[in-house]
Write a structure and sequence with these properties.
By secondary structure, the protein is of the alpha/beta class. It folds into three domains: 73 residues, no CATH class; 224 residues, Rossmann fold, CATH 3.40.50; 54 residues, Winged helix-like DNA-binding domain superfamily/Winged helix DNA-binding domain (Arc Repressor Mutant, subunit A, Orthogonal Bundle), CATH 1.10.10. Helix content is 43%, strand content 13%. It has 19 helices and twelve strands. The strands form two sheets. A nine-stranded mixed sheet has the order 1-2-6-5-4-3-7-8-9, with helices on both faces. Strands 10-12-11 form a three-stranded antiparallel sheet. Helix 11 links the parallel strand 5 and strand 6. Helix 9 packs parallel to helix 10, helix 10 crosses helix 11 and helix 12 crosses helix 13. The radius of gyration is 25 Å and the shape is elongated. The N terminus is likely disordered.
Length: 387
């Protein structure tokens, strides 16, 4: 009966692409990722696993697991159709690819993980390698200064030859991708977005245009097949891939219970560098970074601080990337306002008290500085200098 089922099934044909067997194995219920890899190692390939008899499979598996491999996964036809439709998409300059574990393009650094995916779905400039990856991650609700830091660090690191890896999430992730794209070059993978959905959809939806830009200058990457929705447990799992693709992880802003700290912990466990930008002792979003610094992460104030810890860069390359700074402020009133503000968020009342300004002069100066991108107006009526 099982033979009849297999012969009648849409995938039971000799000319099917081999990725179908890898996908089928990855979706087989009750068999975890490590066991999937063990089966491939023992029998030689994903296709060979499905050529085994139930008795042969039971040398490695329980009877129930062996029986599960003799059947097709739930919703297999729908998954297969969605994957084939995704592969058939056509966009100028953008390709779709499936890299199985034994594929030449499967990133070597991900092969070295304890639990590497059996296959990866990739969209974008797939022929450009993710060379010298640096992950830039942080809060989904950052401060204006945090977003500016993420963009500036990512931009300078990308110019130095790093590929910026992040997760396409709101906040710091998006700012990092935007920064990496600022000076994207045709010959280099500028940025990689590792996502927690299938690549036939974008999450969050507001980042549809950003995802298209990433695909034009880098990769969108997922271990999940097309059609997979943004379920909460997918995102911590994808963090190991963000860390795995990178030589180091830079945390820009993060609360103590942040997914970014999971990424940093995974990087540390993989023997990768962990970097953190310090912040105000009054900010909740500094606490995660400060916790990492207490645990041994490297404090960084510039892209050069990151580069000098990465073995692939020479001292001359590092010297090219000086600390982040804006153009010098020349207006005396603007200088006085910035000096009185300091680096922490401040209320208008405190600013007037601290600097002795008139209300009219302070408001006019703050508006001018905001137009220049030097000051941000924050919730609660606070202002903060962006340095």
């Amino acid at each position: 009966m099982e033979d009849v089922l297999l012969q009648s099934h849409s995938t039971a044909v000799s000319d099917k692409p081999k990725w179908q067997d890898w996908l089928r194995l990855s979706l087989t219920p009750h068999i975890g990722l490590q066991m999937q890899h063990r089966l491939v190692t023992v029998f030689g390939s994903a296709s060979a696993v499905f050529e085994q008899s139930e008795l042969s499979l039971q040398t490695q598996l329980s009877e129930a697991q062996a029986r599960a491999l003799q059947q097709f996964p739930p919703d297999w036809d729908q998954v297969l159709q969605r994957t084939q439709a995704w592969l058939a998409q056509s966009q100028p300059g953008v390709e779709q690819a499936i890299w199985t574990w034994d594929h030449d393009d499967y990133p070597k650094s991900l092969r070295e993980l304890d639990d590497p995916p059996l296959l990866l779905f990739v969209q974008g400039r797939v022929h450009l390698p993710c060379w010298q990856g640096v992950a830039v991650v942080g809060s989904r609700n950052p401060t204006p200064q945090g977003k500016e830091n993420a963009k500036a660090f990512a931009s300078q690191l990308q110019l130095a030859g790093c590929c910026i890896v992040s997760g396409l999430a709101m906040g710091i992730d998006a700012a990092a991708h935007v920064g990496a794209l600022q000076f994207a070059a045709e010959h280099r993978c500028a940025t990689v977005a590792v996502v927690g959905t299938g690549l036939d959809q974008v999450y969050p939806r507001q980042h549809h245009a950003l995802a298209q830009q990433v695909a034009q200058h880098g990769w969108l990457l997922s271990e999940l097949p097309p059609g997979t929705p943004p379920l909460p447990h997918h995102f911590p799992r994808r963090n190991r891939l963000i860390a795995g693709l990178s030589l180091g992880v830079l945390v820009v802003e993060a609360a103590l219970k942040s997914g970014s700290l999971i990424t940093a912990d995974m990087a540390a466990s993989q023997g990768k560098e962990v970097f953190a930008i310090p912040g105000s002792v009054h900010s909740v979003l500094s606490r995660g970074c400060h916790a990492l610094l207490r645990q041994g992460a490297k404090l960084v104030e510039s892209a050069a601080d990151v580069l000098e810890e990465l073995p692939v860069f020479t001292s001359s390359q590092v010297q090219m990337h000086l600390p982040l700074s804006h153009q010098t402020v020349s207006d005396p009133m603007h200088k006085a306002l910035l000096k009185a503000m300091g680096s922490d968020p401040i209320s208008l009342e405190m600013l007037l008290l601290r600097g002795g300004f008139s209300l009219e002069d302070a408001l006019a100066g703050l508006q001018s500085l905001a137009d220049q991108g030097r000051v941000a107006h924050m919730p609660g009526g606070l202002y903060q200098q962006i340095v």
